[in-house]
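Q: My labmate handed me this sequence with no annotations at all. I'd like to see what the chain might look like in three dimensions before we decide whether it's worth expressing. Could you predict it?
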Amino acid sequence: MHVGLSTFFQNLTGLTDHEVYRNELALADQAEPLSFDSIWSAEHHFDNYTMCPNVSQFLTYMAGRTRRVQLGSMVMVVPWHDPVRLAEEISVLDHVSDGRAILGLGRGLGRVEFDGFRLDMGQSRQRFVEHTEAILGALETGVIQSDGKLYQQKPIQIRPKPFRSFKGRVYASAVSPESARIMARLGIGVMIIAQKPWDKTVAELNEYRAIYREMHPGSEPPKPLMVCFVACHEDAAMAQEMHERYTRRYSRSALEHYEFHNEGLADINGYEYYGALARNISKHGIDAFVNFLADLQVRGTPEQVLEQMLHFQRLTDCSGFVTIFSYGGMPYPMAQASMRLFASHVLPKLKALNVEAEVGGMASAA
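A: Here is what I predict for the chain of 366 residues:
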């Protein structure tokens, strides 16, 4: 099984942004020596939720500091980019890393980010579809073109020309059922970032798989990737304290950044799902949702962490995990210790699990 490490670049404490970057880069530098299979980061802008505005820039930096690990975006938010420039950046990353890129895409949810880019959030779904179709076509043919409703592009070459197919190494975060259907049609794998009850997640995965098989006869859908925030400690009580303090703080920051509690999201085209979520939060309270979101994540001793992750794998039939250890204002030494304990006791057992699937077109390294 594939197991990756993601930096998060979250600044919820009194550290300077430069100090946060020093700490997160130090964690990323340890991924390859500790035998993780990949390094990831997520794109966000304008606040302290996550400070990685250019994921391809970060991954290109890490490509030069590594030799083996794959390099994944978790995710690049397609509507915020010019498709030509994004296709070029992805191609450059793949060239300098000798084909180690894994492409994670999304359509975005943070209203502060759409506002900052002067974009109509209500057009995000259409932009995602048109831009993604053009980008994926360019990564296969070396030529980007589009005759969409919102995106028109005369045929033009992407240079350096992509040299390795991206089929089988493209994923998208899909929270709403409508997004899952789009992923299936485009032939994209699903990246699961737990935000809802497991029975709903599994039901939507099964719907995605059924649509995928219908739209791609004779082909099986890619196994999903799963993202987990992890608190690992030799002492179960200490791991629970980490969970209570830092995982919950992360969960509250996610609610605030995405405005999950804002019922006005229902009035934005394509975000009706979040209106229902906001009404549910209003009914049960913000603290209840923060606790629910936090409790979907992983915590405990190495044995407990392994048990939880194996349970998630059985639920989702995922082909790999992307793990996050530094979040919620957690002190760097604590995050590093959690990551190292996981790497020594949990990582080898997960990597030994045969899931009959490769992530990004490569087998997990021993």
